[in-house]
Specification:
D-Maltodextrin-Binding Protein, domain 2; 2 domains; 5-stranded mixed sheet; 10 strands
């Protein structure tokens, strides 16, 4: 077996194609023994890739924009899509069977302030004719702080990635009302990245063979079957199996996972629209600065 080091920028059922690549044995079929770790402020995805301690990572194409804005070309490239939809939800205190995004106006909402999720929410609401300053936006901190603040009754609504809002609903603290992915549509959201040199290696090709199988599996398999695999792998301690199943099923229905792992130019152009709207980029950066073809 050859060791392959995999890192995640964030951890969620949203990234099931990658998680199942590890948990489902697809990498082992290709002779790869995986080590899966989460990024930390002290050990970031770019640092690990550049240091050679990480071969492939879950990240987002948009992480490369900051360098391009400063005129710096990064050796880190994105070669495959994980999700082609935003994976965040809005949950509220009340069930709201007649929920409309207009209900957020003037209300207190705990928003995940990580750069991409917040940019997506801003753009999605803009598409609904809602200006950001019409909301009472609260920054509670990291994902755990956001969850705790909502459970403590500190806001009317909360903006979270699955399975957090689904677990809130299970625990009786809230109700999942809407998906940001429905507002934004197809977009280059989360992706797999690596060093530009690695993408041409035999390891990259073996990884991609495994990833294609895993991607097809999470698109087609029963959500509960996927949830059982991920639970048994220890990916979601403390998350109810029913909750995890429901979250995966929702992501399947939203169309987050597509048959083709390629990052399309159309999805990339929508990403540029999102970031231009939030003022996070000043120009439309070329696709090939950050995206390369899927390893053959």
């Amino acid at each position: 077996m050859t060791n392959i080091n995999i890192m995640a920028l964030r951890h969620s059922a949203f990234y099931s194609p990658l998680l199942m690549c590890v948990a489902g044995g697809y990498l082992k079929e290709e002779g790869l023994e995986s080590k899966y770790t989460l990024a930390t402020p002290e050990n970031t995805v770019p640092d690990a890739i550049l240091a050679g301690t990480c071969h492939v990572a879950q990240s987002a194409v948009a992480t490369g924009f900051a360098g391009l804005e400063m005129g710096i070309d990064s050796p880190i490239v994105h070669f495959a899509q994980i999700n082609e939809r935003d994976g965040f939800f809005i949950a509220g205190k009340q069930p709201e069977t007649d929920f409309s995004w207009q209900h957020l106006i003037g209300k207190k909402i705990l928003v995940d302030h990580f750069f991409q999720p917040m940019a997506m929410l801003k753009y999605g609401l803009h598409q609904q004719g809602i200006a950001w300053d019409q909301l009472e936006v609260v920054d509670a901190g990291d994902v755990n702080a956001i969850d705790g603040a909502f459970r403590n009754g500190e806001a009317d609504y909360v903006h979270q990635q699955g399975p957090a809002p689904q677990q809130l609903e299970k625990d009786g603290f809230g109700h999942v009302l809407g998906a940001v992915g429905d507002l934004v549509g197809p977009v280059a959201f989360s992706s797999l990245c690596c060093h530009r040199d690695w993408v041409q290696t035999d390891m990259a090709k073996a990884f991609m063979r495994a990833y294609r199988k895993s991607l097809q599996y999470v698109i087609e398999a029963p959500a509960r079957e996927i949830a059982v695999y991920e639970s048994e792998a220890g990916f979601f301690p403390g998350i109810d199996l029913e909750v995890l199943t429901k979250t995966i099923e929702t992501y399947q229905q939203l169309g987050c996972w597509q048959d083709s792992p390629s990052i399309s130019e159309a999805a990339y152009e929508r990403l540029l629209d999102v970031f231009m709207h939030s003022g996070l980029i000043t120009r439309r950066h070329a696709y090939d600065k950050l995206v390369v073809p899927v390893p053959a």
